[in-house]
Each structure stands twice: as structure tokens, then as C-alpha cells.
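Blinded run. Sample ID left blank on purpose so nobody reads anything into the name before looking at the predicted structure. Input follows.
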Amino acid sequence: MLSEEIIKGLKELHFLSFGDSHEYIEFFFKNWVSEPNCFYTLEDGKVIGALYYRDFTVSLFGEVKKIPFFNAIATHPNYRHRGVARELIDRAVNECGKRGYPFVMLHPFSADFYKNLNFVPISFCEEVNITYKPLKDISEKPITNADIPALKALYNNEAKRYPCHKLRSETEFKLWVEQLMLNPDFGYLICENGIPKGYYFIEGERITEFIGSDINLLFASKKADGKTLRKLSENGKVYSMARGCENLEKITACNPNCFTNDYKTLNIFMYETY
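Blinded prediction complete.
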């Protein structure tokens, strides 16, 4: 169990690194952080680096796997360029291998940085600028807790079109939306004649997730006007990356080609904003 002193140091590092609100940090540590999925580095008793992962349930070509998703990787500004993050990542990947995971995933802040740490691209995106174009019978409304079942149904319908996609349980989906709700004006449900047809989440000037059968639904949404969407594509900017764990033979149980140059064989459909 993480001590109160360590948790305090982790929270301070998180705020220093990401500038999230106190409310968000408390939610994050209450719901997503536990000792097994938290790795940290100390120097003179001070937390100078941290990494967290969450078990994501992923369908890979019809086979369900648990995959660790790394997030909130941070190094104290006074200790950067000393290999703290590299050591943390190597340690976490090795431990995940011992726990039987085939590989780990993350969304990179820099693809080149993570390529140097033996990560490979597994999904790509292109940026789409949204300009409002009204459509008849299309409306939108702010998302509330009552909309969560409709959001999950829309997500499931979209995700199953992909041979590799993240599965979201009802509990996880609810927690995730409640986390997003900590930010004002965070997301909207798109309806056609009052029937839910899609949804999107906003973070600043970026649309972090859009689910819908037709992207024109997004263009018909006033609140999306002027925002930028990272749309999953077959090539373009690297969106997510993966690295094999020590138990490399387990990779073949998922997909024997997922760590060759044919990266697109594992183009996982997954939006996350952690």
C-alpha cells in the first residue's frame, strides 16, 4: 500500500508536471491509482519521477486481452535529462512482463522519444479542422450522467467495426465520463430527430473523442466549430505506440505481426484522454 507521504509526493509531482486541478488530481488518485499500477523514483526521499498504468481490456482479432496502458509519465523539472523516465519505463515494462502481459501501450508526447525506448507505432491519426455546416434535424445537448448508457451503446457499435478495439465496461465508462465532467463544457450528445447518433468530448481547442456513424454529424455541431479532431487513419501522425514485455512469446498469442514493420496490422481503435 502506498504511504501517505508517497501519495503526497506523487500528487505534488502530478500537479507540477500537468497543472491539473486539485479536484481532478483527487479523482485520479482515488479511482485510478493503486500500488500495483504505480511506479516511482525517489531521490533523498523526494518523488522525482512517476508512471502509472491501467489495465485495458482489448479485443485483438476476436481474442480478449488485458493490456497495460501507461499514462501520466512525469519527471520533476529539476531532474530531467538524467534518464529518470527511461529507467521508470524499463522497470515498468519488465514488471509487466513478469505479470504475464504481452505488451504495453501509450499515447506518445513524442514518437521519436519513445522509438528510442523500443516502442513502435500501432495506430495513426490525421488532424481535421471542424467548420460548422448545419444539417436538418440535427441537434446537440450537453452530456449528463443520464446519457451514459446511450454513449456506451454508441461506442460499442463503432468499436466493433474494428478488428482491434478497446472494450469499456459499464463501470469504467461511467468513471471515465465522470472524470471528464470535472471540466466545464466537456462534451455533447448529437441527436437526429431526438435520437442519439453520436457524441464528442472537448479539451481546450481539441476534440479528444468523436463517436458517430458519419463525421458530418460533427460538422453539424455548433459547439465543435473551430475545434480540431484527431481522426484515426491508416497513416499520418503516430497516435499510439506499444512495446513488447519480457515474455515475448506471449505476443504471438495476440498477433504474430504486431511488432514487425507491418504496424498497421494492429491499428487499435482506442480513444483515451487520461
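Unblinding after everyone has recorded impressions. The chain has two domains: 4-123+236-266, 131-226.
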